[in-house]
Design goal:
This protein is of the alpha+beta class. It contains 19 helices and 30 strands. A 7-stranded mixed sheet has the order 3-7-1-14-11-12-13, with helices on both faces. α10 packs parallel to α18, α14 runs parallel beside α15 and α17 packs across α18. The termini are far apart.
Amino acid sequence: MIGASHYRLGGDRLAAGAGRFVADVRVPGMLHAAVLRSRHAHARLVSVDAKRALELAGVRAVLTAADVPEGAVIPTRVGAPPGTERYLQPAIARNVVRYVGEPVALVVADDRYVAEDALGLIDVVYDPLPVCATAAEALAPGAPLLFPRTESNNVALITMRVGDVDAAIDAAAVVIRERFVYPRQTAAALETRGLVAVPPDPKGGELHLIGSTKCIHINRSILAPIFGIPLGALRLTEVDVGGGFGVRGELYPEDILVPLAAMKLGRPVRWIEDRRESLMATNHARQTEYQVEIGFDGDGRILGLRALILADIGAYVRTAALVPAEFGAALFPGPYRVPSYHCDLWSVVTNKTPAGTLRSPGRPECNFARERLMDLGAARLGLDPAEIRRRNLIPAGEMPYDSGTKSFGANTVYDSGDYPTLFDELLRRLNYERARAEQRERNARPGPRRGIGLSVYVEKTGLGPFETAHLEARPDGRFTVDTGASSMGPGLETVLAQILGETLGLAADRFEVRHADTSHVESGVGTYGSRGTVTAGNAAAMAAAKLIGEARSRAAASWGVPESEVSYASGALEAAGRRVTLGELAALRGLAVGASFNVPKITYAGCAVGVIADVDVETGTVHLDRIVIGADVGRAVNPALVESQLVGGVAFGIGNTLYEALEYDAGGQLLSGTLMDYALPYAADVPPVEDFYQEIRATTNPLGLRGLGECGNPGLGGAIANAVSDALRDEGVGITVLPLTPALVFDAIRSAARGPTP
């Protein structure tokens, strides 16, 4: 069962248009909410007058700061340095607004149209304040402090020290210094955020939030105290999710305001985010500057690496705002031996939408910088880009490998893997030598210039601390499966069913894996950090083993035989000529078990990608010709889903590399607030993609699994930038900034032709 390309369970329902998303939820008596958002990037909030809005027919309530508990603040859900609490976001603006899009009021009305009309009737008086629209402005001498009782707009300085970098750089034969800039981006998921809040019955009951996802048990533990209710009086239920990518399911102001409105009115309230709101209010991500220095010896081996990382985290520290850049800093050495590494990471608040996690947080940025450095080093040393990587990759014989870095207190230790073999397989599938020969032949003729780009990287997967699974046998011979992990599209239901089928010896389609619901499973962590298959999968296997043990115990007691004499196979137990099925045992008395898998260590996955691209020097247009990508999955539970995740990740990475950028002006106004301005890739922009996987069992979990959801995208920035730089090397172009829009590439060609500024 594990290793089979089983069809996607539940896929037929979604393909038939029978999915149930948040906007499909209908509850009797439901009202509709709309959010009034700040139009200023930084201003004192002098007054908010809702009198005219409340007089509009159909308006039921307007919530302002006066209606929201002062303790309604969005906390961090991971460990954060002391002092971080000074930069947290209130659920609704109090006294000061710090970014365009910050909630100022919530209107609840009979329908969405009335609610939107009422927003224009709320009178708000702002007193504009100086704006810090960039990290550089926020750190400049004399910059206004965005928060009271703080000494700096830098929330935290995080340092990493491995070896003696000064000595390493001094001893290097070649030293390269460069500055790399990764743009601000967001998920732009097909489905925007939304929530339906159903208040408890006046006679008693629970507050029910429908549409939560990602980490519903964590969010429940945060929300219940804010609402002043016991944990058991709050239920969160996930429905179908039209794309998560790290931004969906984090705790946002609306997750507090909408339930407060429902409780105040005693009626269900639904809020659905529109696309412009999504681009200005849903978590942003990525925007980071790497100022780096690397030293190589004469043979091309890395001696030392130094980095100053400036992360623009937006206006507040919201949930996991500090996670991406710290993950990136810890994984900047990547799959290579780096004996000396020195990093200073600054996380800087600015007057922009708060930042958070986005598919493979922190890794596209660090991979872009590091993999460009590898190509720059190869060029300076006269080496092929593949050869310089071969000389630096960590060999399998050195696993487990401690890179010397830490993130959130955990050492970065690669548990197992064979990066050189993975890279060699990439080159073989890319037909690297032939591709180089074709490149030389093509570039000898007039026309577009061809380039080849490589990227090797390591992904952090299977994050802890634990995950749960609950398995119940039913009299009809089927099984109900619940887990704390959320299902946001990658096929978690299918994977868990296959793992359970493997353990119980039954067909995968006999398992009904339900969406996460706090009423079905008491505790859980959620789905992020490529953890669902690793953590929930191992918990499911443990639950299946417990179910067999419980069934054997019952059968032995019923038949009066020692438990050791009861055998189990394919859903049935036998002993002394007697036989009973799990379904029959369940019919006599409920047969259900739960299990929790505690994560002992983070699991790491080696990944590699190669890109062949053509660049039109007359227009700056980049055409991707071919992509090959591979990853070590530990064990491929479902090869078809492996392919889907890798190819889908490539498409995501293409968008991040060639198109996507959230641009702001000097006043903190978002300039790319529609999909006309925030460009996304078309299907035609994705070239033929060949994927493959390596299976070296992880040593961190009993099933030997590695996560995969974030392996496909984070290497594309480095690989495509290397391909474009390779294509334009005769023009003297070296890419240091993304996205690679035609305008940026054309300007780089023109700037190189003009030569350095005197």
